[in-house]
């Protein structure tokens, strides 16, 4: 099997308008970095637009391009996993399809990798252009929250845009979980990882494929995948409530003996409702982990491939 010097892996969901410019810019950047010895892996994550047709056309014209068509929309992290499974390069660049992350930074990232002897060069967003205030605020809050609750130090303000060595990628691919938070999993893998600061641009075309619902799912997977702190909070809340109710008991007992017994229906209701709410919250937290266990225990393949256009040299095409 020939191992190209570089693989560029790109998950795409409804990105038809971006693909041609993306292909041109990524090709040029890869060529400038390693010459002809590279491959570009485009993964079509069940797009509803013309993405797959455009990919097939591009693959027919460029022997360095492999296009993979998943059987349906499996989500960003799984589409990315499909591309990573399939690629065969000695170095791997992960990049989004919307050109928010400039492919031209590849040369500098490779230079950092060589200079630092690193296995992973992860791009840290210094600025984010063309994104809503809400997105920036929630993203900033999310990364800081995650940093507090996880045991694995996951770099702040870092997306999936990164350059990896083959051994770091193979280590990443050996993690079998279904609910994947890839930037966290890469951090967990270890080796020498160095940051690379850059300014994030606006989308080339189209709009974000991460609506609030997907962002929330993503955040839940990140927290539950890398931390059991919420389960600990559940028991902390329980202990705190136990002491509170003990104090309450004393208060009631004093009332009983001094004759000023409480007839307070309101306070009773308040406590009942409050306790009910806390119980639901704690149950919900436990449920998140239980659900995760259930999903993992099914051991389904991570994704299914429907078609491939172009030469495939990498691993099997059916996921795990
Ligand atoms: N994406 C995907 N499947 C999805 C959603 C997104 O493959 O279900 C891809 C998308 O095409 C893009 C990348 O994941 O290449 C990041 O998505 P997007 O740019 O919409 O996210 P944002 O930059 O707004 O966080
Ligand atoms: Mg984007």
Could you please describe the fold and organization of this structure?
51% of the residues lie in helices and 17% in strands. With 320 residues, the protein is of the alpha/beta class. Strands 7-5-6-4-1-2-3-8 form an eight-stranded mixed beta sheet, with helices on both faces. Strand 1 (6-12), helix 1 (16-34) and strand 2 (38-44) form a beta-alpha-beta unit. Helix 6 (166-173) crosses helix 7. The longest helix has 33 residues, at 265-297. It is elongated, with a radius of gyration of 25 Å. The mean pLDDT is 86. Magnesium ion binds at residues 96, 98, 100, 203, 208.
Write the layout of secondary structure elements.
Layout: E1 6-12, H1 16-34, E2 38-44, H2 51-61, E3 65-70, H3 76-86, E4 91-94, H4 106-116, E5 120-128, H5 133-149, E6 158-165, H6 166-173, H7 182-189, E7 193-200, H8 212-226, H9 229-258, H10 265-297, E8 305-309
Helix pairs in contact: 1-2, 6-7, 9-10
The structure holds uridine-5'-diphosphate (UDP) and magnesium ion (MG).
């Amino acid at each position: 099997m020939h191992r190209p010097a570089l693989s560029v892996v790109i998950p795409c969901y409804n990105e038809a308008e971006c693909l041609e410019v993306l292909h041109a810019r990524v090709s040029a950047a890869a060529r400038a970095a390693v010459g002809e010895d590279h491959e570009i892996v485009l993964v079509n994550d069940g797009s509803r637009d013309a993405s797959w047709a455009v990919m097939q056309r591009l693959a027919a014209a460029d022997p360095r391009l492999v296009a993979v068509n998943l059987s349906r929309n499996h989500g960003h992290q799984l589409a990315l996993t499909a591309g990573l499974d399939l690629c065969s390069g000695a170095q791997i660049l992960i990049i989004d399809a919307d050109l928010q992350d400039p492919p031209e930074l590849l040369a500098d990232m490779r230079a950092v990798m060589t200079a630092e002897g690193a296995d992973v060069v992860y791009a840290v967003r210094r600025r984010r252009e063309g994104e809503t205030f809400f997105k920036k605020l929630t993203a900033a809050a999310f990364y800081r929250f995650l940093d507090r609750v996880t045991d694995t130090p996951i770099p702040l303000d870092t997306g999936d845009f990164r350059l990896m060595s083959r051994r770091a990628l193979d280590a990443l691919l050996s993690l079998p979980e279904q609910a994947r938070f890839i930037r966290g999993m890469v951090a967990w893998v270890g080796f020498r990882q160095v940051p690379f600061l850059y300014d994030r641009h606006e989308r080339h075309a189209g709009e974000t494929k991460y609506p609030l619902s997907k962002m929330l799912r993503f955040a839940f997977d990140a927290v539950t995948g890398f931390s059991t702190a919420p389960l600990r909070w559940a028991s902390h809340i329980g202990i705190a409530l136990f002491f509170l109710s003990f104090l309450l008991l004393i208060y009631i007992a004093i009332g009983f003996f001094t004759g000023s017994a409480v007839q307070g229906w309101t306070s009773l209701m308040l406590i009942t409702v409050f306790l009910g709410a806390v119980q639901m919250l704690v149950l919900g937290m436990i449920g998140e982990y239980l659900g995760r266990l259930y999903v993992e225990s099914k051991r389904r393949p991570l994704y299914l491939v429907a078609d491939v256009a172009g030469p495939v040299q990498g691993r099997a095409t059916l996921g795990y």
